[in-house]
Design goal:
Blueprint lengths: L6 E6 L4 H16 L3 E6 L29 H4 L4 H15 L5 H11 L2 E5 H6 L13 E3 L1 H6 L6 E5 L1
Parallel strand pairs: 1-2, 1-5, 2-3, 3-4
Length: about 160
């Protein structure tokens, strides 16, 4: 079966659990359908590929309309930890791999993983701070040039 979508480029700007997994699941789904996929990690999205932070991603409880709880309650001490624990428990029931393992699965499937040079510089990170499976550090111009083909879609998460 042929598809008009040939390549999916995801831009991950926030490394909350719900945003990171949304990008990972969609990129993985693209690969499973034979569609090229790439993820560009920028600004706080870089936390999803930082060796010291990727295992500590949290659910956003404040300012997240999907939580269906008032902001004041979402900001109470312990709410973020509770919501994160509940989300991870539900993900375990579905056999969702942890962040580090999912990134490895994506890389092994051919999904390209890129860090944003501006954000890497802004947060004073080195290549050694980032996962080994990273394909490289690109400027936004370099990333956009990867989208210069028919059938390519960009999705900002």
């Amino acid at each position: 079966m042929s598809t008009k979508v040939k390549k999916m480029l995801f831009i991950l700007s926030k490394a909350t659990i719900e945003n990171a997994y949304a990008a990972f699941v969609m990129a993985n789904g693209a690969r499973m359908e034979g569609i090229e996929s790439e993820i560009f990690f920028t600004f706080f999205g870089l936390e999803a590929i930082q060796k010291k932070k990727l295992e500590h991603l949290k659910v956003a409880t404040v300012g997240n309309p999907g939580m269906h709880i008032p902001t004041m309650i979402g900001g109470l001490p312990g709410m973020e930890a509770l919501a994160t624990k509940m989300m991870k428990k539900e993900m375990d029931k579905l056999d969702m791999p942890p962040v580090d393992e999912f990134l490895e699965i994506l890389s092994d499937s051919g999904c390209k993983l890129w860090a944003c040079k501006l954000a890497v510089d802004m947060f004073h990170l080195d290549r050694e701070d980032l996962i080994d499976d990273l394909d490289g550090i690109l400027t936004i111009g370099d990333f956009y040039s990867r989208a210069d083909q028919e059938g390519c879609q960009l999705l900002f998460i």
